[in-house]
Fold this sequence. Notes:
Helix content: 25-40%
Structural class: alpha+beta
CATH superfamily: Aminohydrolase, N-terminal nucleophile (Ntn) domain
CATH architecture: 4-Layer Sandwich
Largest sheet: 5 strands, antiparallel
Number of domains: 1
Radius of gyration: 21 Å
Amino acid sequence: MKPIPTNHNFTTNxxxxxxxxxxxxxxxxxxxxxxxxxxxxxxxxxxKDGVVLATDNRATMGSFVANKxxxxxxxxxxxxxxxxxxxxxxxxxxxxxxxxxxxxxxxxNSKDIAVSAAAKLLQNILYNKKGFYQVGHILGGYTETEGxxxxxxxxxxxxxxxxxxxxxxxxxxxxxxxxxxxxxNLSVNDGIHLAVKAVRSAIIRDIASGNGVDVVVLQKGKAPxxxxxxxxxxTLIAGTFKP
Length: 243
């Protein structure tokens, strides 16, 4: 993840020397564009009567660590949270927009919006722009009528309902852990342990992911629980990490 969307270029002015004839040399100003890559690790998994979302805390500008305390978990409604990956400006704008739209829905209809409806709303916004927003989101939540819901929503408007998922440059490493260890009806502690382990596995190998791990638990009949963990490799390997 980085503070500037990937569809923006950094430019460098250079002088190109070319030979027009055998005896003449021409000097021409040129601009070279350099794209900075994005990077982050966000994960989500469904647990018994709830959802766990987790992210790393590092924001990057290419190979430069721009921030070691980046917040990538955001509340949409008290029972809906969303993670961000990609360009920060785009992602935060969409977070604010979705917050406003879901609150307007609540006021107009005198009831809370469904998690799946909030996900569909974001999908429509993204699909309408067809890749204008350089983002990837995981949206999760719990309601009495729907139960646990988890969605993978990409920048072009694709939406997938998942049991577990990961978005970002570190997602191949995180998905390896999720694929191996996720199972139905995980307890809260087991869900947190799995999410933290998945993010940490990406931090070990992905240079764009790093620092601490933010976690939120959305569970039936309970207020959202948010925590930040600093976990070393030895603790995870030994299995002594306790949420």
